[in-house]
Specification:
By secondary structure, this protein is α/β, with parallel strands linked by helices. Helix content is 20%, strand content 25%. A seven-stranded mixed β-sheet has the order 1-7-6-2-5-4-3.
Length: 172
């Protein structure tokens, strides 16, 4: 007789949103920042031009960090210290990195993780091993020659940290 499969320890918390402009994407970042705390890993994915950096700019504003949040494509990572009592924001663009945690280890993200909010663009297959608790944000947009600014955003909180964290409040 086979045993039934054990339920997952923590089901993923998922929220879906439709964003209609870059300013609304930035506002989503500001609102999401109110749910973040030191030790959080946020993984952003989406096509080029989907709004990953715009969302991160809003996170920086919401967290109250120093410096303009811009794409760290060529420097790989930027640290934005807090202007107040909150955690710093570490913004990583893993697009140019190969794969796996080896190259990411050179950035010492595991050292920064406990006292920072780490946002990684293009981190799939590269940073999952840092922690079981992470927020995955997938941004879908129309591709091709289009001026459509509508984005469909799926936020999936994985691990105990995101159980009851309030992601559903972002749909208000």
């Amino acid at each position: 007789m086979e045993r039934p499969a054990a339920p997952a320890a923590h089901e993923a918390a998922e929220t879906r949103l439709t964003i209609t402009s870059p300013e609304r994407m930035r506002e989503l970042g500001r609102r999401l920042a109110t749910l973040l705390r030191a030790g959080d890993l946020v993984m952003l994915s989406g096509e080029l031009g989907a709004g990953k950096t715009t969302l991160t700019r809003g996170l920086g504003e919401g967290l109250g960090v120093r410096g303009a949040v811009t794409s760290p494509t060529f420097v790989i990572a930027r640290v934005h210290p807090s202007l107040g009592a909150g955690p710093p924001l570490v913004h990583v663009d893993a697009y140019r990195l190969g794969g796996g945690l080896d190259e990411m280890e050179d950035l010492d993200l595991d050292v920064s993780l406990s006292d920072s909010v780490i946002v990684v663009e293009w981190g799939e297959g590269k940073v999952e091993e840092l922690t079981d608790d992470r927020l995955q944000v997938v941004i879908h947009r129309a591709v091709g020659d289009t001026t459509d600014e509508v984005r469909h955003v799926t936020l999936t909180g994985l691990g105990e940290r995101w159980t009851g964290a309030g992601l559903e409040s972002l749909t208000d």
